[in-house]
Amino acid sequence: MSKAKGWQAVSKTISSLVPPIHQPLPLSKRDSQRLLDALKTSFRSELDRQHGPSPNPLSGPKASTTLTSASASSAEKPDVPHRPTDVHLHSILNNPLLNQASSPRRTSGIGSPYDHDKEVFQQAVAKGLMTIPRAHGFLLKIFKTAEKNTLSQSPLYVPLQGTGAGLLVLQWLKASGQHNTYSWLSNQKFSVLLLRFMIAEGLDDMVWIWLERVMKQASSVNTMHSRICSDLLIKHFIAAHTCTEGLRDAYSSVIQVESMLKKNELPLNQLGDAWSLVAWNSTVASWKHAKAPVSLFEPFVAMSIELERRLHERAHLDLYHPTDPSAELALQYFREDDSFVKRLLSQWDPAAAPKMPPYVQRVMALGIDAANHLMSADRVREANTILDCISGIQNRIQEIVGGGSGELKPAV
Questions:
Q1: CA angle, 303 as apex, 300 and 308 as ends, to 5°?
Q2: What is the C-alpha separation between 55 and 333, in angstroms, rounded?
Q3: Which of 48, 158, 190, 330 could cross-link to 370 by cystine, CB 3.0-4.6 Å?
Q4: Which of 43-47, 179-183, 194-198, 336-340 has the lowest mean pLDDT?
């Protein structure tokens, strides 16, 4: 059959559904749906005649099926296309920028508590009103709803995997082309929250694809943009991993990122801030997280040498070893390296920076933990040595701020 005859068939199908032009328009909802179905069927048939069906068109690389497989794991699993024409048609009809904008409505009866907010999001996308700040607000709203629906008091335990919000935002970024420019990484709060949703929804494979891509760009082109994108994506991805009950995935991700940096011959210092954030959550904020296995903890700690991290971070991690905690490095630090704290305090101006320097905060936490460990081991004299150092730092802080002190915050 020729191409002209093929489209004649499409025209006849449409003519049988659409009334003559002199009759009132627009079509009813039912007729519109019938027209859409007919167009889909005829369009698919015509493309099949032109290009031919394929028995297994989706057997390509993992990257091309990430979003499809993620969609299939959501609450309502769509039918997975099996022909090239189906794939093409599916990508057109499911582009969020082409969705019809309908008024958001609250459905009665049993339904997902996220449905209304997701409808509002999709409506804004269809009208071209969606922005990064609005997408951030949408994710925050979904997070708050999920938080209300869980019995846990900790935000680390909020179940996000069933919301589908991360996939919606990811589809919008992809359809609008922003996922390739990585401009959204400049908004740290949005990007960390989005990556947290993506991890919960099993979409983190897409992040690894992004990381591989930006690292290759940074390695071959070596532009400031690609380097900044690589730095931000690493930092925000690892930060999202620390927002969970356990740090197992945070450790394994840091180790994998280090391997990728070496493979692409990029400087390891890109990983420094992310490593320090995980180290902070492993020590000062360890009460929020379950202990990681030794098999991940030890390689993570060993990275401190290559990353050229300060002695106090390694010393603090040694105190939190899952099976063999040690205060030896902490003792070494307070005997040899606390002069840096004194120099920082001498330069600190509380009027300009009300909170004490993060480095000082971390050293204070290290001293308290080391003294507790030594006291529990009946090493009282060594514990007192550290307590004397901490008391000296505390007295100096009291002199500077007049009796106040800053709240402990991550030293990153």
A1: 140
A2: 65
A3: 330
A4: 43-47
Q: Which residue has the higher pLDDT, 365 or 35?
A: 365
Q: What is the DSSP letter of 239?
A: H
pLDDT number for residue 141: 94
Q: 246 in helix, strand or coil?
A: strand
Is residue 343 a contact partner of residue 319, using CB atoms and an 8 Å limit? no
DSSP H/E element including 154: none
CA 365, 371, 373 angle in degrees (round to 5)? 105
First to last CA, the chain: 67
Phi (first) and psi of residue 260, to 5 degrees? -70, -40
Q: Residues 187, 155: contact at Cβ < 8 Å?
A: no
Closest CA to 277 of 267, 289, 265, 266: 289
Phi, psi of 54 (to 5 degrees): -125, 135
CA distance 249 to 140: 23
Enumerate the β-bridge partners of residue 122.
none
